[in-house]
Design brief:
Elements lengths: L2 E7 L6 H14 L3 E6 L14 H12 L5 E3 L12 H11 L4 E7 H5 L7 H7 L1 E6 L21 E5 L7 H9 L10 H10 L4
Parallel strand pairs: 1-2, 1-4, 2-3, 4-5, 5-6
Amino acid sequence: MSRVGIQGGTFDPPHMAHLILGEIAADWLNADHYLFVPAADPPHKRGQVKAAADHRVAMVQRAIADNPRFALSRVDVDRPGPHYSVDMLRLIGQQYPGAELYFVIGGDSFAALPTWYRPDELIRLCRLLVMHRPGDGVQADMHAAVLPDLMGRVTVVDAPLLEVSSSAVVERVRAGQSIRYWVPDAVREYIHQEKLYR
């Protein structure tokens, strides 16, 4: 059975931590496909997304272009909203029939899983690969009382504590500071060329 890793996010902009975590997850999974899925209009970030979806898609394409096992999925940006992870996973499952889907999320997202839209259905569609960072307190069984079907469908993988965030990159752009090494060079060039985040 093939394995498909799925890393969603606003990628506003995509930065080095996104890519490092993607490489760790793809290694752990020995993934046949590893998808970066830019979110069109995530309900939990309504009003917070700064760059339009077409810019974020273009930046992800540039960020992953030199990694042959990474691919961009437009499954979320090419459909009408609302945009929930459970719907995105269902569509990817249709694109990869018979594959085992692994939804790669951070410990902070996993901690909030019971508040997501239809989390019980989401965990039937995929396995969760949770990127555990030092000190985040994440445990695979932490939601067993409210989501009993989750047991056995979660793997927690140690990931480095990377203090790089999209909001920090945006702040540096607005302050006229360098973002070299914060984002891939191709993304940095695109941000400057398109005058994003000013």
